[in-house]
């Protein structure tokens, strides 16, 4: 089954995410690409959603209002995404609230119902050139705000610095220094009104959107596809019974690389939902009926090495270990 590529648009409040989204939808129309959009608003009003609804078929837009999809709206994300996927889009755009943590959203799209339906293509962060330095000054902002903006920069595959017409060359250099401190690898684009080369960033010939749009009957096996996003997830199937200690030892070996791990696993005591955040691992009894698996989420995970380690570790059942 073809996985639908997902682009996550993040950036602090007022940075220019919706302006970029409108350009994306216009390009989709020109290229005959069928898009779907999930938009998240902190408030109860839907200003941004209304502004793009005319560019989409109504059924291809889902909205999460009055909350953040990485926090109090997380339980609604799966339902919205499944609704959009039923429309058989070529690509899915998710526009986050300005205070959302993109890592938590990636966690949402690896839920069991979505794991085999979606693939994260890129995380694109839009930066407000006029205000980003103030956001990162702990004397002018609270620590949670600083932590969020740093995370949005750190995990981005592309950084778009917007509103450059409102800053001096000196301030622009300071912004560049800040971005490179948090993210030394990803390309940076300086612009106004979020105007960038949409084709280069989103719809290059190598992107899975263009591959599947032009070669719909020539599917590429998932394991042979290129991972375009610095945040990536690895799904590791488990066909044997194991123990909590064995799973936790495996996670410990890779703890410096992973942000989050979760999965439904068959251990000696029964079926459990395992969730790991940083060094904390939680086991919760479950009535899950599907195939057992572990998902690891991190930044630039080495898929090949982790899968090889997993296969070596779980090549045979282990029942006696406690």
Provide structural commentary.
By secondary structure, the protein is an alpha/beta fold. The chain has 2 domains: 220 residues, 3-Layer(aba) Sandwich (Rossmann fold); 84 residues, 2-Layer Sandwich (Hypothetical Protein Yjia, Chain: A,domain 2), CATH 3.30.1220. It is 32% helix and 25% strand. It has 11 helices and 12 strands. It has a 7-stranded parallel β-sheet with strand order 3-2-4-1-5-6-7, with helices on both faces. The longest helix is centred in the first third of the chain and has 15 residues. The radius of gyration is 20 Å and the shape is globular.
Q: Would you list the SSEs in sequence order as H and E?
A: EHEHEHEHEHHEHEHHEHEEEEH
Q: Assign an overall shape.
A: globular
Strand arrangement in the largest pleated sheet: 3-2-4-1-5-6-7
CATH fold label of the largest domain: Rossmann fold
Radius of gyration: 20 Å
CATH class of the largest domain: Alpha Beta
What key attributes describe this structure?
single chain; 322 residues; alpha/beta; Rossmann fold; Hypothetical Protein Yjia, Chain: A,domain 2; 2 domains; 7-stranded parallel sheet; 5-stranded antiparallel sheet; 11 helices; 12 strands; 32% helix; globular; disordered C terminus
Which helices and strands, and how do they pair?
Blueprint: E1 4-10, H1 17-31, E2 35-40, H2 47-53, E3 61-64, H3 74-85, E4 91-95, H4 102-108, E5 118-128, H5 132-135, H6 143-154, E6 158-162, H7 169-182, E7 188-190, H8 198-201, H9 208-214, E8 231-237, H10 244-253, E9 258-267, E10 270-277, E11 280-285, E12 293-299, H11 303-313
Parallel strand pairs: 1-4, 1-5, 2-3, 2-4, 5-6, 6-7
Antiparallel strand pairs: 8-12, 9-10, 9-12, 10-11
